[in-house]
Amino acid sequence: MNTATKPLIWSPGDWNALFGFGTNILVNMLVLTGLLRYVLGMPDDLVFGRILPAVGLMMFLSTMYYAWLAWKLAKETGRIDVTALPSGISVPHMFVVVFVIMLPIKLATGDPVKAWEAGLTWVFVQSFVLMAGGFLAPHIRKITPRAALLGALAGVSIAFISMRPALEMFMTPLIGVVCFAIILASWFGGVRYWRGIPAGLVAIAVGTLIAWGSTLFGFGIGGMSVDNLGNAVSSFGFSVPIPAVGHVFSGFEFIGVILVTAIPFGIYDLVEAMDNVESAEAGGDKFPTTRVITADGVISLIGCCMGNPFINAVYIGHPGWKAIGGRIGYSAATGIVVLILAWFGIIAVLMALIPVVAISPILLYIGMLIGAQAFQETPRYHAPAVVLALVPHVAAWGKLQIDNALGAAGTSAAAVGFDKLGQVGILYEGLATLGGGAILVSLVLGAMAAFIIEKQFYRASVFALAGAVLTFFGFMHGEQIGLAESPLVAASYLMVSAALWLIARQGAPAAVAAPAPLEVPAPAAEPG
Description:
The chain is mainly α.
């Protein structure tokens, strides 16, 4: 161990990462608050007095823990360039728990508190899935090709991190596109702004000025309102989280509905966290997989027992924050800022002050970095496997758009008819099957393709067999856990496994020599 260099708690680049990652967290909290208030119709005293303070506590514990883990790695290795893992509310799960668990219960009972309690129980179950799975994850990482791990992550980033911000930017281009150019010029082009002000802060400031300037001149770009701002300021107060263990166990009356999604999405969290640890290691920072995943479970459990119905997760984005100079301090600083925002009721003010579209470019930037890393950090001849791993997420995204559009029209794909949709080129059943359990599908298909490219047919056969088992029990290519949820797909995987095993038995061609990975220049960090 090199002890000559002490860990650097704060570096100039941490300012960039603080404003970048901090605005990412801010967007998620603004969206979360909007879902609670406007979709679930929860009263403000529950949202601002119970839920958000618990959210703030959970994210404070999470960001502090990962800052400590980075400090420990820096101390052990003697490096000063270690970057902490980003973490926070799991965005996909935020929508799942709201629309799949809490909203149906709210509509059925008419009681927002019952919906909140069901959300708490959902997180409670998921927490134990994560804690148990944390001990299996290192073994899964050892046997899974990097192309499959990073390809699955890239699929998530393109479909569910990048698309919405990109669409928002071009719906309000005067703000979104201008802010995006500010981000690109600095974080990719190395442009330094006046007095070293972080690009994320510059983008938000410019976007906010454009939005409020247009409001004052009567154009109204960005949806800002003086009345909304005044009402938000009046909501200032101080609230700390209160134990909600009784509410957690009250939610067990809905355990049948909860288990249908809590277990598979707990597995989703397990795989995504494993992918993110792999992504960090590809960027030079090797964190212990078991500690990372079990910490997510423990911190989520603490959060739900204090009133937070949202799961904690290691975030996609470590390479992006590392590229712009983020190290250890940005994570801890973000946790402190989130705690202040949540406990003092400032979130409502920020919702009325900052246009969300000014923050969207930062999320698109992160999606770009993660998508690029899947190709940059794997051998060039594994590129087809990476592309294959992207496809299930595109299918899942497409199905989600169709479902939401038809739901807004008061109908569904089944009501319209799959044949009618097929006649206009929408293969809905194919989207549903391919996109069901997308992250596991990506992992299995990407691993099979990578091993076939390497001519390691035995290993490809094992992953095909795993795909058959996971599909049979509904973890892949299905809507829910059960027996024979997608029997034909499971049988297909089984046949492929047998065929690959026979190929290997009969003597496959020698494994290909591994050429050097494609060298792609790293993005320029903002000078600091």
